[in-house]
Amino acid sequence: xxxxxxxxxxxxxxxxxxxxxxxxxxxxxxxxxxxxxxxxxxxxxxxxxxxxxxxxxxxxxxxxxxxxxxxxxxxxxxxxxxxxxxxxxxxxxxxxxxxxxxxxxxxxxxxxxxxxxxxxxxxxxxxxxxxxxxxxxxxxxxxxxxxxxxxxxxxxxxxxxxxxxxxxxxxxxxxxxxxxxxxxxxxxxxxxxxxxxxxx
Length: 200
Description:
The chain is an all-alpha fold. The protein has helices spanning 13-27, 31-38, 42-50, 55-62, 66-72, 79-92, 108-124, 129-135, 140-147, 166-170, 173-179, 186-191; strands at residues 151-152, 164-165. 56% of the residues lie in helices and 2% in strands.
């Protein structure tokens, strides 16, 4: 079993976020209050509770120690660590992914198809990954993951390592289309299986 030492490690935020959400409701505290106590922004903490972790939020979460969660939520010492370790065991078990209830809107094959089209269009326009990332109000890492199809609707279905949240990317498709000079809605059409035109 992977060793969990002091920080939250993907893909185990879901279990910790669910426990945190329940405890916060019991304590009748706002997300803003908990976020401040953890040293996070409200957006970062909200992402933790939702289970969808955008790339830029992952770094912030990785700096929060598990012991700090015990303190903030008045949990018994080691509760956060045990929650994460149980999640590790669940992921390592042979239980099918579907048992978790995949919340993806599109299958990984659809994201791979869009990623290939994005790379082709980006190279044709001679746009670098950093420039496209900036146009999408994101980063070059996001563009790299998109082009490689490393996009998942549910972090529990994603393999360990870098990945992009589907929810995060879906919000940025209009910006992607503008940057690549695509028609409005063209990215969604590619995800839905429409043939990729020469312009794409």
